[in-house]
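Q: What residues go here?
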């Protein structure tokens, strides 16, 4: 175990110990910080209810990730080959960052009804542009000499993109995926709270109405677990790309 992992484990243990001290000695009367054992007991006691909502949130994030990645690849290709598309996309990106997309859920519910798309679309819109901008930066950083070499061999634009530009931009894609993975849980919960029938966002809202503090923290813990799972998947993809690129030289 390296130094960084030891520091990480020590930080988590310090946080847990501090939580327990606050729960038992300092904030016991307020019920704001329930003891960790009560949260774990709530997880096991309500496991079927929590698992159902966690599955709904997991599917929302998975579908949103896939759709956002596919559209961002197409959008970055258009941005690289057309300056007008690049200018329009960057302007829309700034607009979307200033406007909370989950507020679109009530409008989408009015148009689409209480459907799955009413939650997925705002999440996709929140994830797509960070991915597209990172991918475009990676493609734009490609030295012109590589593109000229492909042009000498009569490569088409699509061949240059898929065989040269996209592989070269993998580090930037991973950066965008990490950024999106770290915020996907928050985006999904916000969308579910605005207009969903199931999911961890609905679970947390119902627990808040019933003043079930342990269930609220259990829901937040599940949000962290789902988000951390996607972040770890991006990390595994990064390790796979590194081994595939440099494994033959080791």
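A:
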């Amino acid at each position: 175990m390296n130094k960084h992992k030891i520091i990480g484990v020590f930080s988590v243990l310090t946080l847990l110990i501090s939580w327990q001290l606050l729960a038992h000695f300092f904030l016991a009367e307020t019920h704001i910080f329930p003891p960790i054992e009560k949260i774990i007991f709530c997880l096991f006691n309500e496991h079927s209810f929590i698992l159902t909502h966690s599955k709904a949130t997991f599917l929302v994030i998975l579908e949103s990730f896939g759709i956002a990645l596919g559209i961002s690849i197409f959008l970055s290709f258009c941005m690289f080959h057309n300056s007008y598309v690049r200018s329009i996309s960057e302007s829309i990106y700034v607009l979307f960052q200033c406007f909370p997309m989950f507020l679109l859920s009530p409008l989408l519910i009015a148009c689409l009804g209480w459907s799955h798309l009413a939650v997925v679309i705002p999440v996709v819109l929140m994830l797509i542009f960070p991915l597209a901008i990172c991918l475009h930066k990676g493609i734009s950083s490609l030295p012109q000499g590589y593109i000229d070499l492909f042009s000498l061999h009569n490569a088409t634009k699509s061949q240059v993109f898929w065989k040269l530009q996209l592989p070269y931009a993998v580090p930037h894609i991973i950066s965008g995926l990490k950024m999106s993975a770290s915020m996907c849980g928050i985006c999904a919960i916000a969308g579910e709270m605005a207009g969903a029938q199931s999911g961890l966002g609905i679970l947390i809202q119902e627990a808040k109405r019933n003043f079930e503090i342990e269930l609220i923290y259990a829901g937040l813990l599940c949000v962290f677990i789902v988000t951390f799972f996607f972040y770890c998947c991006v990390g595994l993809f990064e390790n796979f790309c590194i081994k595939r690129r440099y494994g033959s030289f080791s």
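A: Context that may help when evaluating the design: The two ends are 21 Å apart (CA to CA). The first helix runs from residue 3 to 26.
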